[in-house]
Amino acid sequence: ARHVLPLLMAVLLAACGTPTPVSPIAALPTNAPKLLATVFMSPTPGEAEQRATAFAERPTTTLVPTQTTSPTPYIGVFLGEVDALDDGGVPLVNSGLFDENVGSQLDIPTPVRPVCTIEPELIFGTLWRDNDTARIALGCPTEPIQMFEGAIQVFENGVMYFRPTGDIWAIAPAGAQAGQFWYAATAPEAPAEEQAIIAPDGLRVPTLGFGAVWSAIAGVRDTLGFARTDESAVTAYWQRFEGGSLFRDDTSGQVFILVGIGTSGEAYGPY
Prior knowledge:
Layout: H1 4-15, H2 47-53, H3 102-105, H4 132-138, E1 146-154, E2 159-162, E3 168-174, E4 177-184, H5 208-216, H6 220-224, E5 232-240, E6 244-249, E7 254-259, E8 264-268
Antiparallel strand pairs: 1-2, 1-5, 2-3, 3-4, 4-8, 5-6, 6-7, 7-8
């Protein structure tokens, strides 16, 4: 033990001695020259470069949409901009456009007369053609004109005509507007009246064929009223059309448009 202790102390003193000097690190140069590196770019890329850039996308700028005003499409006739009212309301259309000249600004088609194989007879005149509604409804004549000598009786609100073949017309016209007419190929059987019909003073109850139509066909009596005259002779002309007929009372010179090919229809005139 006496020999070991001095040995340990010698080892400890050796460890605490002066450290071995380290070689200093050389300082980095601060004034090293700068060199420019040059890279060669081939004008024609090789196969590897083409594959590398095949999926490259060019960056794009996101555009922000801008709102611009444009005319609103519409169907129909443009009536103009609206005008504000004094009370704050807004009218539906510009009332200033509704004047006597507005019709000339619109392209309104002119009705075209049909080309007919059989023409309407000139004896009916031309005034009836001014009624476009009735004229178009008539269409073209289907047979030549017929003239007959028959009978006539004038009523409060119309007239009745008789042809020797048995035909009877009861006509209650309303001018350019649609009135009414009834037609019977033969006089119907007059119904039995519960009591005699008495006409007011100055008027008459029709008899014979006129009386049968007047009392048997619904609507005739109420529409025509009582007779104002007795039956009298008349010369008349009648021409059938596709949609009705023209009827001329040659004694008075009056023309009626009868629209309808059945037992009743619309009556226009007289012209």
